[in-house]
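New here. Your pick:
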Amino acid sequence: MTRTAADTANRSSLEESVHGLTFAGILRSEWIKLRSLRSTVWSFSIMFVLQIGLGVLMAFTLPTSNDSASGMVNPFAMDDPMVVVTTVTAGLALGQLIIAVLGVLVISGEYSTGQIRSTFTAVPTRLPALWAKSIVFAVVTFVVSVLSMLLTFVVTLPILASRDISVSLLDEAVWPAIVGAAAYLSFLGVISLGLGAIIRSTAGGIASSLGLILVVPVILVVIPVTWVQDLANWLPSTAGGQLYRDLGVFEVWQAQLIMLGWVALFLGIAALLLKRRDA
């Protein structure tokens, strides 16, 4: 076989393998890449430890309505379901930062190592790879978040019981809060992934993601203009917080739509740039 014929055969074989790649196959490959990253294992492990540790700390220190049984009024005392919700979601303050950083790394790491070229060679249309990466990361984040909060509930249950607090996991205030908190982290992770795909730089993506979560809300709140301060309610950190605690700003379904809007915004820009820019 001549060299030209061999090259033609190789190209034909590659085209057949590419065109035969299904979306399920892309999802599977993205799952393999995600779980093979050391940053994924370390990030989720740290989130687990922080979630349980902060939950235990909260369980020991939060004032409850039972603390006022002696007749002394405690204006900060909370009822039993609220204590449980605050306890199991205590780690979200730091967990959201971990997920934001990991969301950027999931995509920016491929650009820094050059692996993105192999990804686009396997998926020439590019966009299915972005959708699959977002879906896999969102699902894994949701599952890990739910498991970490369930484990926190189990670990802190004896502590809360010693303080005469007894609430079922299926309480109408507890289980929806766990699911909502996990959904918030998933939304936030995909938003960060979108930012990473837009900026294509680990440092820039992380700075932008953390800035959106931590810096922008503070700036908007301190500006003494009502409509500017109202904008802070539409940021991911505030609207997403409504998914697991009642902030009195939006209904849960409204908060979900706002978070979906943020996801659509950043993934939409990322998809547009992905089609127009070189790898």
Summary: DSSP finds twelve helices and no strands in the chain. Residues 158 and 165 are 9 Å apart (CA to CA). Residues 127-162 form the longest helix (36 residues).
